[in-house]
Amino acid sequence: MINVLSCITLEHDLRLVLLAAFICIAGAATFEQLLKRAIHAEGKARIGWLGIGSVALCTTVWCTHFIAMLAFHAQVPVVLDPVLTLLSLVLPVAGFFFGIAAVIYGRNIASNILGNLLIGGCIAGLHYLGMMAYRVDGIVEWKSEYVIASIVLACGLSVASGLFYKKFYDTKYAVYSVGLFALAVVSLHFTGMEAMVITPLSLSSTPMDTATFTALSIATALAGALVIAIGAICFFLDADQRQEGYNQLLKMAMTDTLTGLPNRNAYMEDLDARIEEVKARGKQLAVIGVDLDRFKDINDSYGHRAGDLALITIAKAMSRNLKVTETVARLGGDEFAATKVFESRTVLNAYLKKLEWALQTPVEHEGSNLKLGGSIGVAIYPDDGENSDTLRNNADLAMYRAKINPASKVCFYEASMDEEVRQKRELAAALARALDNDELELHYQLQASVDSGKISGMEALLRWTHPKLGPISPGVFIPIAEESGLIIRLGEWVLRRACEEAVTWENGDKIAVNMSALQLTQVELPSIIHRILLETGLPPKRLEVELTETAILEDRDRSLHVLRQIKALGVRVALDDFGTGYSSLEILRSFPFDKIKLDRFFMSEIESSAESTALVRSVLSLGKSLQIPILAEGVENENQLSILKAEGCDEIQGFYLGRPETLKDVLEKAGAGSLRIQSIKPEDHKDGEDQNSSSDAA
Fold first, then answer.
1. Which long-range contacts (CB under 8 A, 24 or more apart) does 261-265 make?
2. Dihedral, CA atoms, 673, 677, 678, 683, nearest 10 degrees?
3. Which one of 340, 342, 586, 600 counts the least CB within 10 Å of its CB?
């Protein structure tokens, strides 16, 4: 070690030694960054970075060796062999390439050690090949112990640098691997120089003088610095492009592509920041949920392009002239959100009024001005919650309250809303238990032919009696089942139970079962129906599934595809609640329904309203022209029946035939199919009691 230090201090130009050390450290640092880029790259890009890295590494080692070699005072005339000098620069590139590749592609300790051993060997090979080009006027002998020590130092320190880099390459400690690598190069060179013993002979007539050595060293340093700089530039250009790409991806990830507003992720980040801001400044924050009205109607009636235009128009209106204290975002679908930092309710109310006006902005589409409107729910920090999740949830609760209360389109959160949610959750859990424990039952409502008066079938209606609360209205528990996702299991239970009980009827009448919109989203619904029919033994022609226009229009194309598969089984398909939707004629044109059920709304006014009678007449005429039977729901008295009979209605259903009852009671009253319309007396039913609706069945 003392001899090596003496060699450095007494036999070398220290200025050039420092220059060599600087080139070595700068090149090692550049190589480290290029190696990191190669690790993260894939495919051809990784091979490209391997090539750039191996060239930069070889140039670094060669320049360090060459400058330090020129710094050596040989005390004899010296010349350089140009061929060997060039080979010492070019040949090691391939070795460095394969060494780096072993480190990157292996990704384990063994391959890392093997790759760095190859790199250390290439450093040693480059040095001693360069020393062969160092021609002196004298006899050169080598001390084998120093030669071996130099190779061991190069390989050992290269392995240490590689292992250190593997463990810490993505941390600030990776800089130490640069130092270890530079030490590997420097220690090999000066230990190798100490291994060389020169006996002067003074044979050359054209030795290089000191000035030439210095000039050549500086030129070499500049060339090395240039190559290293090119490598660094490649790295920083790539890093800049990556950062730009990352920024673009981040913007895409945080922006709604349709409206250009912040999306849900960006909104929640901004909301958290706003909460911290108002907490520090002692102000209040309004968290606002916005849901558009009639958006689905526009989508269904005018198409998705009109729906997109509506969203863009409303988004621009809501975000116009935004202040730094305000945020507007689109969370998805027709749901928007906003925040407002405020100190007085007057300021907040003015902002809410601005949002109301924005929601009323007309949407110009193909010469028509479409209007949407919307419902707004507001939760206040810190009164209604102290974190973003609680505030968002409470704003949604207030928004849904506003949606069901047409009198007020802006609703502020109240603590009682939480109680409603709790009750819904409890009912959903109780309903799930009732389904598991088979505590539900079916009631049946009769359907009859107007001409013959004979019972033609029955509709299955789901009923639930809560063990503590008693009978729960289907209008209450069916929406809860839809919100909780229980409607799928519930619908299958109703279908199976209805088919099982219908098989026991002796008259062979049909059984009608309602299907929900969520059931229609099941691709496997036709196979479920087919399996139940096979397992229960009910002939497909006796089953009639009923669907509303709204259920079909949730996903029109998929729904019609599923319905065609159901009809192919031999099952009848009826369109329920006809006349209350927005695309009735289009639906009738798109699918061959076996029956149209006229909504009970028409029956409630048929005796007193000439317009209702005319509408009923039009629907019945439409059914005749399409050869689709019409069933009128909600028939309560003889007068309504007479009007329907005169207009040519095919079937009726309602309290005029009797209230929904258990199968046993219905069959007893119907006399196994012998009951006719004429045998029902007005006193057998109760006027004014709610009748069947689409929400009565699953």
1. 261/315, 261/319, 261/328, 261/329, 261/330, 261/336, 262/327, 262/328, 262/329, 262/330, 263/329, 263/330, 263/331, 263/332, 264/329, 264/331, 264/332
2. 110
3. 586
Alpha carbon distance 541, 609 (integer Å): 38
Instruction: Tell me whether strands 572-578 and 543-548 are parallel, antiparallel or unpaired.
Output: parallel
d(CA 392, CA 320): 23
pLDDT tens digit sequence for 581-639: 554 566 787 788 999 998 887 887 788 778 878 888 888 888 888 899 999 999 988 99
Please state the length of the chain: 698
Q: Rounded to an integer, what distance in angstroms lies between the CA atom of residue 38 and that of residue 46? A: 5
Q: Exposed/middle/buried for 216, CB within 10 Å: 0-12, 13-18, 19+? A: middle
Quickly count: other Cβ atoms within 10 Å of residue 577's Cβ. Answer: 22
CA–CA separation, 518 and 548 (whole Å) = 12
Q: What is the pLDDT of residues 219-259, one digit of tens each?
A: 455 555 656 666 566 666 555 555 554 555 555 567 888 88
User: How much of the chain is helix, strand and coil, in % rounded to 5?
Assistant: 60, 15, 25
- Which strand (E) or helix (H) includes residue 187? helix 175-195
Residue found under tokens 């019609």: 560
CA angle, corner 687, sides to 683 and 692, nearest 5? 115
Q: Do 122 and 96 contact (CB within 8 A), yes or no?
A: yes
Which two structure tokens, joined as six digits, stand for 3? 């001899």
Give all domains of the chain, ordered by start, each with its CATH number. Answer: 2-235 (no CATH), 264-414 (3.30.70.270), 424-689 (3.20.20.450)
Contact at 8 Å (CB) between 599 and 574?
Answer: no
For residues 340-377, one letter each, b for 16 or more C-beta atoms within 10 angstroms of the residue's C-beta and e for the rest, the string is: bbbeeeeebeebbebbeebbebebebeeeebebebbbb
Q: Answer whether the bond into residue 382 is a cis peptide, omega within 30°.
A: yes
Q: Are 115 and 103 in contact (CB under 8 A)?
A: yes
Question: What was the pLDDT predicted at 674?
Answer: 44
d(CA 651, CA 671): 19
Distance of alpha carbon 555 from alpha carbon 635, whole angstroms = 32
User: What are phi and psi for residue 152, nearest 5 degrees?
Assistant: -60, -45
AA letter at 251 = K
Per-residue pLDDT reduced to its tens digit, 663-678: 888 877 755 444 555 4
Give the helix ranges, DSSP H, for 71-174: 82-90, 92-106, 109-132, 144-168
Ramachandran angles phi, psi of 284, nearest 5°: -115, 160
Neighbours of 151 (CB within 10 A): 20
Instruction: List, in sequence order, the alpha helices (H) in 412-555.
Output: 416-436, 474-484, 487-502, 517-520, 525-536, 549-553
Q: Give the integer Cα–Cα distance in Å for 101 and 95.
A: 10
Distances (CA, A) of 291 to 71, 266, 296: 78, 19, 11
